[in-house]
Write a structure and sequence with these properties.
By secondary structure, this protein is mostly helical. The protein folds into two domains: about 1-90, Rna Polymerase Sigma Factor, Chain: A, CATH 1.10.1740; about 110-175, Orthogonal Bundle (Arc Repressor Mutant, subunit A), CATH 1.10.10.10. Helix content is about 75%, strand content about 0%. The chain has eight helices and no strands. The mean pLDDT is about 85. This is ECF sigma factor. Belongs to the sigma-70 factor family. ECF subfamily.
Length: about 180
């Protein structure tokens, strides 16, 4: 049965059991892509489950595009949010660290640049932040990022170039102030 017919049966006739066919059809691919982001099987299972629950709850907002891609996009957003949340939790205030940094101007300047870069990345739109994080933090190639975010590989490469230029300008402007 086609995805559209299944969704119609669920929405119009209340046949909620049909959603199991969608889960069977797309859980494998969604799991694989999400595992590529999360690198943790337990978290991946949780996120995939949340993605299907969210997809079911929002079936009426599905626009008739490829259903598997739509569910993948939901899972990707949930995974990236989970990664960001975990990263924030791992961050420890510098006052609590018992490590002494070398007292030289290079490390201070390097720290300032890293901080400026993190702040500039934090001000980017969500899609741009996700592209940067997937490319630089997760070492994903343009093709993988494109598949994860539903973009073309060329679009990802163009966006990466523009984002880098934008970040350079922001950081240089802040340094000049």
């Amino acid at each position: 049965m086609e995805d559209e017919a299944i969704v119609r049966r669920i929405l119009e006739q209340g046949e909620t059991g049909c959603f199991g066919e969608i889960v069977s059809r797309y859980s494998g691919p969604v799991y694989s892509k999400t595992l590529g982001l999360m690198k943790d099987e337990d978290l991946t299972r949780d996120i995939v489950q949340q993605a299907f629950i969210r997809a079911y709850s929002n079936l009426d907002s599905w626009r008739g595009t490829h259903l598997g891609g739509w569910i993948n996009a939901i899972a990707t957003h949930l995974a990236l949010n989970a990664l960001n949340k975990a990263r924030r939790r791992r961050t420890q205030p510098i006052e609590e660290c018992d490590v002494k940094a070398p007292d030289d101007s290079y490390s201070d300047e390097h720290e300032r640049r890293l901080q400026a870069m993190e702040e500039a990345i934090g001000r980017l739109p969500e899609l741009d932040r996700n592209i940067i994080r997937l490319h630089y933090y997760k070492q994903k190639k343009a093709q993988e990022i494109a598949a994860t975010l539903g973009l073309s590989a060329n679009n990802v490469l163009v966006k990466l170039h523009r984002i880098r230029e934008q970040l350079k300008k922001q950081i240089n402007n802040e340094r000049d102030e």
